Amino acid sequence: MAFGLAFAPGAEPASAQAPPPHIEWRTLETEHFRVTFPAGMDELAQRAGAYAEEARSRLGETFLPAPEGTVDILLTDHTDYSNGFAQYVPSNRITIYARPPVDLPTLGYYDDWLRLVIVHELAHVFHIDRTANPVGKAARAVFGRVGAAWPFFPGSGLPRWGIEGIATWYESALTGAGRVHGTFHNTVLRTAVIEGAFEGLGQAQGDSPVWPGGQRPYVYGSQFFEYMHDRYGDEGLAAFAQAVAGQWVPFRLNAAAKHGFGITLSQAWHDWEESVRADAEEFEGRARELGPLSVPEPVTRGARRALYPVFSADGLELYYALADGRSDPAVARMRPEGVSGEGPPGGERLFRVNDTGPVAPMPSGHLLFAQQDFEGAYSFYGDLYLASIPSGRTRRLTEGARLSQPSATPAGHAVAIREGAGTRSLVHVDLETGAVRELVPASPDEHWAYPAVSHDGRWIAATRWRAGARSDIVILDSEGREAAAVTADRALDLAPRWSADGRYLVWMSDRTGTFNVLGVEWDAAGERTSESKLLTNLLTAAGYPALDPAGEWLYFSAYHADGWEIERTPFDFPAAPAVPVATSPPHESERDGLPARSVAAGAADPDEREASGLGAGGVQAESRPYSSLSTLAPTYWEPQTRSPVVTSAVSTPTAEVPRRELLGRAFGLTTSGRDLVGRHSYSLSARVFIPDGNLEAGLAYSFHGLGNPALGLSVSQSWDDDGARLAGGRDGAEPDILYVLERERRAAASATFVRRRARSYAAVSLDAGVARDDFTLLDSELEPATRYRLTRPRTDLFDYSASFFFSSVRSTEFHMGPHKGASFYIRARDRRELSLPDTLAGSGLDRSAQDLLSRFVLHAPLFRAGYGQHAVAARVSAAAARGPGAHGGYFDVGGASGSPENLSGLGLFGGSSIFLPVRGYQAGERGGDRAWSVSFEYRFPLALVNRGLGPWPAHLDRFFGSVFFDAGDAWAGSSAAGSRPDPMASAGVEATADLLTFFRFPLRVRGGVAFPLDDARPVWYVRLGLPF
């Protein structure tokens, strides 16, 4: 359950979510929480502990009973993103990124970032941990914290809008700020109503990239519950959550809503939509009272996210950040007059970037920008880069400086934001040396964003946040001394920008109930000469303004139901209406019946601080070195089964060997654990075959405490059959049928070195292991044979391998799986028999072998048509082995690759990954010690559906298709070239549907038909997942 980034187009890489396990961590404890944090962040951790205790008390009063036991909070500073997420398995854990989101339109309205995110994530813990039906309570008592929705954690079985909506509503109800009390969520819904894109209940259940994409559950969920609270009172939301927790039959949303609110969810959603329409009409009336509505001209079309427009020094080109959901984020340029019927919808792409942010034209003609990338294997920080125009070549200027949002000075340097330890300070950066000089000291109670240097270099305009959700525009001189406060209120004021002549300052503000562009006049002496003016009056939103060098046009990012576009309107400052006096945001905390309590350190009432356990800087608790043992113990076990060990039926000239069950079905359990910071992780399983009593078990352990490499150890014991044997049978007598039962005991170790970048990943793995195989000869009664014995009842093997993997493969929101990049994998392995006498080396009894595997995959986009880009994909796989153990079936070729389902956790259908596939043939159709396969595909979008079944747990997002050609072969290396059959080859078509089932399980269902070229008969199949 994540906190949710505010329409951030450069989404944080999943690998950046893991904090560095090897750094020095410390822990402090409060009555109900254990806060773990990097050394040096004690003050922030004390505040987090205080806010958590207060949030626990308030949620217990207004929501659900508090969960039992200690909740762990991991406060981390390893990334320059703002986020947080909660986990309910293996235990209740909250992870918080310390960076405050003062620069984000949706998350920027907060009294204290730590307090807001802790309330949100702790609401998840209260909600998801709750189970109220006897089946769930009994299951949790017996099996522990199994990661399944019903009956263990029924709250996690809600659609995401329900889960995130509840937490987002409480984040606002208990803090007096947050997204419900802000304006942007209402803007999203109002715009959807105005432009005919408001989503029904079935659509909101899904996870479609259709705008608002990943923000859908936060926007629709929080505002729906706000409506329900206003309509049906204080108790309804808690009663709804309690009803879900107590359901005997899961996924009955209408029944839970009827219990909590007295109305079905389907009817309530319809009523809410009508309410949003009425609110939009009322809002339009209020907007018209401010002045005529703006009718801007479009500059881009179909851009999805076109942000931060800025002009070149000569005014001939408009630069902006572009993320269209169909290709890599980029910096683009176009003619300032805007779109025509020709050319790309989002302008000309100059160079790709890792994430979108402001760009700053330099006096030299270069573009200065910031982007984030990995520092080592875990940290993800921002640095400054310089791009040449028009080539688009980029050069990195700083390393690990944690800088963002640069603005160029006339001297060719920059003013930027420096992140770190939950602060955002204002700094000067020497672009020649990379030296960073502080202009405004870092402080946990004052955060900065969007610095803008005037063209003469005298003034710096910036957004300054202070406690009390006061995000204002201030003017500083070139040394960081405050010269003037342009605004001083609880409106959200962001992204100031100077006119070319320094006469005007423009910025975005939500004081009208949505974001619009405001402006003020400024003279050469540094004095304000006008009141603030309303330069746009939109019903949707306008942000990130820029004036053209001539001062004739105002450019900005305009919000629509499908994202942000660059638009423009004539700039006439004298004729613009005055800005209304700022009032509190539309939703006051008194409306929701849960008055917010200010507990910001140093700002709260002294009696209130004492009651909540707050001191001047938070809880007063001593920290100690972090110990992994506190969170490493297993917290669950799951039943596990394995099918019987069976020998296959074999027909020989002298006897028919029937299929026999050597060992019955095995039953057992499995568990796993991982400590809070990820230094240690393990999995353990054990099964017993019934009624034989044979034990099968395994233990795998990983250690990440070195940071890089990661180390692994594993031990296991497993059982299998080694086929049947025929003995005797001389002089026409019927031979005896014998069976061989194999027990393998194995121990292995590994070391994996990784190199991460924002758009690539590389890893080198070294593995070694030993195995002992014991063979038991069984007679026809499956008892140990007494008349016969095996020549070699035991073998000892040693193997070692080295592998290399590289990938630059990446995807986009609207693509059909990977859309661009390449990957390469190669592994070399040597396996040797240790127990073989020298006289038998190289004989048919020798299992020694050396093998080599390799695979190359390429994805390339072609052109945009339909909802996404058409693309081609290719895969080439090859394998070779040698040595006495490299028998004719060493490698298998054939079959259609797939992925096992994750609904049951048992992988009951969906297929499995095949290294050497050829569609249209059976898996393992051919075998040998030499093998290869190739696949070529052309993929194309078919339909973007985005429809669900009302309150029921099924949603269809999209269809796409492909045309493919496969080929492959396998043979014995010793065979003559002329004796080998022709390679297998097939061609066919596939159609794929993206589904979301049970509100949480994505299924990519792929159906196809393949036509083997050596057989006209079609072969139909269904798999899950893409073939590659």
Class computed from helices, strands and strand pairing:
mainly beta
Straight-line distance between termini: 28 Å
Overall average residue pLDDT: 92
Radius of gyration: 32 Å
Unreliable runs: 6-10, 586-616
Strand element count: 53
Approximate shape: globular
The count of helical stretches stands at 12
CATH class of the largest domain: Mainly Alpha
Q: Helix amount, in percent?
A: 10-25%
Approximately what portion of the residues adopt beta-strand conformation? 35-45%
What's the architecture of the largest domain, going by CATH?
A: Orthogonal Bundle
Largest sheet: 17 strands, antiparallel
Count of spatially separate domains: 3
How would you explain this protein's 3D organization?
- With 1028 residues, the protein is mainly beta.
- It has three domains: 14-291 and 587-625, Neutral Protease, domain 2 (Orthogonal Bundle); 297-570, Neuraminidase (6 Propeller), CATH 2.120.10; 808-1028, no CATH class.
- 15% of the residues lie in helices and 40% in strands.
- It is built from twelve helices and 53 strands.
- The protein has a 17-stranded antiparallel sheet that branches. A six-stranded mixed sheet has the order 4-5-3-2-1-30, with helices on one face.
- Strand 39 (710-727) and strand 40 (736-757) form a beta hairpin.
- Helix 1 packs across helix 2 (113-129), helix 2 (113-129) packs across helix 4 and helix 6 crosses helix 11 (265-290).
- The longest helix is centred in the first third of the chain and has 26 residues, at 265-290.
- Mean pLDDT is 92; it is low at 6-10 and 586-616.
